[in-house]
Amino acid sequence: FTAVHPDEQKFFNTALGLVKSAGRIVREAFEQPASAVETKSSNTDLVTETDRAVERYLIDGLHAAFPDHKFIGEESVSGGAKIEWTDAPTWIIDPIDGTTNFVHRIPLIAICVGLSINKELRGGIVYNPITNELYTAQVGTGAFKNGFPIHASSTQDLSAAVVVTQLGSDRRPEMISSFIQSYQTLMLKHNAQGNRSFGSAAINMMMVAQGSVDGYIEYGIHAWDVAAAAVIIREAGGTIISPDGSPFNVMGRCVLCTGTPQLSSTISTNFTHVQFQAEA
Ligand code: IPD
Ligand code: CA
Ligand code: CA
Ligand code: CA
Question: In Å, how far from its chain's centre is CA 37?
Answer without folding.
Answer: 22
